Amino acid sequence: MRIVVLTGGIGGARFLTGVRAYAGQVGAEVTAVVNVGDDVLLHGLKICPDLDSVMYTLGGGADRERGWGRAGETWTVKEELAAYGAEPTWFGLGDRDVATHLVRSSMLGAGYPLSAVTEALCARWQPGVRLLPATDDRLETHVVVSGPDDGTTDAPDAQRAIHFQEWWVRHRGALPTHRFVFVGAEAAKPAAGVLDALAEADVVLLAPSNPVVSVAPILAVPGIREALVAGTAPVIGISPIIGGAPVRGMADRCLAVLGVPCTAAGVGGLYGPRSAGGILDSWLVDTADAGAEVPGLTVRAAPLWMTDEAATATMVRTAMELA
Ligand code: GDP
Ligand code: FO1
Ligand code: CA
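That is the input. Now the predicted structure with guanosine-5'-diphosphate docked in place:
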C-alpha cells in the first residue's frame, strides 16, 4: 500500500508521525509532498521551513515546544549577524539550523535540485517517509498588504507585496492583508517523483495543514492538482480547524483574507468535492464539529487532537477507513 500526504510544516509534521506509525502497523510506504512556498533566501542561505519542520520532527531533532527549528538550539550566529546590523534581524537562524542551510545552499549552488538535496539531508535524519518538495523550482508565497511599513512612506495605504515570512514573523499577520500570491507557481514543475508518487498512490491524505499557505501553494504547481483530480486514489482531507479555531498558527487570519469561514465545514468547502470541481472525496472533522456538512462530501467526525503519536496514528486509521 502506498500513501501520499500533501503537507505543510508543523501541523503536517505532527500528522506524519501518526502516518508513519500507522504505516508501520500495516506495512505501507509513505511519500510526503511538502510545501515550499515558505522558503526564503536570507544571508545567502536557502531556508525551507516546512521541509525542515517535517525532517527535524520525524528525525527526532525538532524543538517540540517552539514547533520550528532544532532542539537544544543556540543563537550565536543570530547575535553576530545583529552585531553587523545585517538585515533582516527579525528572522532567527539558530546555530544548529544554520548547518542545514549551509549544506542545502552549497548543494543547490553546485547544481543539485532541491529534491536531491532533501534526500541528502534525510540521509542523516532518517525520517522514515520519503520527503519530496512540491517543486524543485523557485516558488515563494508573497502577501499583498497595506498599512505602515517603516512609518516614512508617503502613501501608507498603497498596496505592496512582502514575503510570507516577513508577513508572519515580522508583522505576525497583523497588517491589512489583501491576498496571497504564489510567485513562480505558473512556471514551476512538480519535483522529480511527485507525479509518479501520485499516480501510484493507493490513498492521498491532505494533512491538517494550513489550507491557504501550506496546501494551496502545493496545488498551485501546474500538474499536481490535475494529478490528484484525475488519479484513482481516494483523496481524504483532515481538518486543521477544530471548534472554529486553528489549533495553532495563522490559519484564521489566512482564511479571513479569502472570506472563508474559519470552521471545519468552511475549509472542507474550500477544498471542495472532487465530484464538483474540487479535490476531496472525504473530509474528516473533529468530534467537536460533528454534524458539519459539506455538500458533495462524505464527512466523518473523530478526535483530531494530535496530542501524541498514538492518538495521531488512531486518527490516521480513521482517515484510512474513509478510503
Ligand atoms: P506550518 O506550515 O508550520 O504552519 O504547519 P502546517 O500548515 O502543516 O499546519 C498548521 C495547521 O496545523 C494549523 O492550521 C493548525 O490548525 C493545525 N494543527 C496543529 N495542531 C493540530 C492538531 O492537533 N489537530 C488538528 N486537527 N490540526 C492541528
Ligand atoms: N518563526 C518565527 O516566528 N520566528 C522566527 O524567527 C523563525 C525563524 C525560522 C527559521 C527557520 C525555520 O525553518 C523556521 C523559522 N520560523 C520562525 C518558523 C516559520 O516562520 C513559520 O512558522 C513557517 O514558515 C510556517 O510554516
Ligand atoms: Ca508552512
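The pocket of FO1 (ligand 2) is lined by residues 8-9, 38, 47, 49-50, 52, 68-69, 91-93, 97, 165, 168-169 (CB under 6 Å).
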